[in-house]
Amino acid sequence: MRKFLLAGIAVAMMATPAFAANYRFVIVPKAMNNPFFDFARDGCLKRAKELGNIECIYKGPVEHEPATQAQIIQDFVTQKVDGLAISVADVAAMTKSIEAATAAGIPVITFDADAPGSKRIAYIGTNNKEFGVALGKQLLKMRPDGGKYAMVSGGPGAKNLAERVDGVREALKGSKWTEVAGSPTFCNDDPALAVQQMTDMRTATPDLAAIVPIGGWPMFAPEGFKAFASRNKKDIDSGKFTLVVADTLKMQLELLRDGYANALVGQRPFEMGEKAMDTLLAIKKGEKVPEIVYTGLDLVTKDNVAQMLK
Question: Where is the Periplasmic binding protein domain (predicted)?
């Protein structure tokens, strides 16, 4: 029950408190305990301050909980905010929420995770199929000899994550890599659970040659991830076991630098937050906006991790 109680806690910040904002735009993450979304929040706040007439409100479920996300959105519809940017935790649930917001005259865009069949006006974020392909290609480049691999995913109802899984499989199709039964696992964006699932998979399949988390969740528990990697360090160093992980937060870059992973493929959540504010403001002004805005990827290995950390 704790997560339902905590989900009511708001983090609402005015970009420029000295005057009344013309517009109140809300950015709704899948989970506020996921540090990935902190960067989207920071980008939102920065851009709102630069624009000068916007209040950036950041609020979502504390933990990954689609029903709570839907309730939070309904609350903002009742408050008649001026725009919503949503990272969609569950497509079916959010499609209904987006329809309700739109019916109330509130423009809705998505970021990070899309609901393309909904009434959202635009999507800002990663091309998730290409993201998955990039993860798979990085593994194939590092280990063309192949072997058994597994993936760790987040929530089973998230379309963006399903696209990443498809992309990894597409990149490895026809290669010497084979996916093990039970892959992907679903950690529901819980870092500790993601680490435990990696441990369980390696225990169940001792000759598992690679794990590809399609989100950064296990590294968001850096000490737990480090403990897992340390137990497998001999195989990582010898090339028998490979870790290619999504996202490039600072803690992840440090783990890669220190030899606890082989490669990272990163998104750009700060830009997602910035562009969400620009897009919602343009919509309110009656301007035409692109339906899709991709923010790009970053490929990081030991060769360029020091540069990324600067």
Answer: 25-288
Number of domains, the chain: 2
**Both 31 and 146 in a single domain?**
no
Same domain, 86 and 117: yes
Q: The CATH number of the domain where 286 resides is what?
A: 3.40.50.2300
- b or e along 207-234 (b: 16 or more beta carbons within 10 Å of the residue's beta carbon)? ebbbbbbbbbbbbbbbebbbebbeebee
pTM for this prediction: 0.86
Q: Identify whether 308 is part of a domain.
A: no
178 Cβ contact partners less than 8 Å away, ≥ 6 residues apart: 146, 147, 148, 149
pLDDT tens for 28-76 read: 999 999 999 999 999 999 999 999 999 999 999 999 999 999 999 999 9
Same domain? For 121 and 206 the reply is no
Q: Render pLDDT for 176-202 as a digit per residue (tens, 0 to 9).
A: 999 999 999 999 999 999 999 999 999
Give the model confidence (pLDDT) of 87-143 as tens digits.
Answer: 999 999 999 999 999 999 999 999 999 999 999 999 999 999 999 999 999 999 999
Those residues with Cβ within 8 angstroms of residue 211's Cβ, 6 or more apart along the chain or in another chain: 149, 150, 151, 152, 198, 201, 202, 242, 243
What is the bridge-based pairing of β-strands 185-186 and 147-153?
parallel
Contact present, 83 and 25 (Cβ < 8 Å) = yes
